[in-house]
Each structure stands twice: as structure tokens, then as C-alpha cells.
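Hi support team,

I submitted a single chain yesterday and got back a structure, but I'm not sure I'm reading the C-alpha cell output correctly. Could someone confirm the output below corresponds to the sequence I sent? I've pasted both exactly as they appear in my results page.

Thanks,
R.
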Amino acid sequence: MKKAEGFKTARNKVLKALAEGTYLHEARGKIDVKNLLLTGEITAEELAAIILRCTGVHHEAVPHHQVRGIHVHILKRDGWYIKFYFLNPNTIFISVHRQE
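Hi R., thanks for writing in. Yes, this is the structure output for that exact sequence:
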């Protein structure tokens, strides 16, 4: 498996996708509580503001549970749990919700 993108690269790419509206959402169960970006309970601008406050200590990258070679980025900041990955050229959100 290739090395995961670093925090700064991942943050810049996800912020660009949020600013441009060029992101998708992974289909999953409990989407109404696990992806508040999709449901509109948080806007792309609000999410970007949270991500801008993240530093490397708020980030981890783990292998995708189904797609070999894809790294999933997880950000935890201000009580939020944000999980996404990149599948060129797309940014795909898995989860955007309050931490439980």
C-alpha cells in the first residue's frame, strides 16, 4: 500500500473540494446522523472552518475497510468527527458528525 498523504496535503485538498463544491458522499447506513454535511445540518463553509482549526494532532490516516490502496483521513476537532478519502479526482465524505 502506498503511503498516505500527509495532513497538510489532505487538508488543502479537502478544503479546496469544500470551497468548490466538488465532493461526494459515500453511501452508508445511518446517513441521517453520520453525515450531517449531506443532510445540510452543517454547511460546507462551517465544516471548512472546523477543518482550518485542525493541526496534525487532530489527524490520522487509516486504510479504507473495503478499497485496497485508499487511505481514509479522520479529523477530530471541536467535538466533530470528519472522515473522508480521495479517489481521484473526487473527495468523498464518509462521516461528518458530532463525536459520540
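A quick pointer for reading it: The chain has a mean pLDDT of 90. Let us know if anything else looks off.

Best,
Support desk
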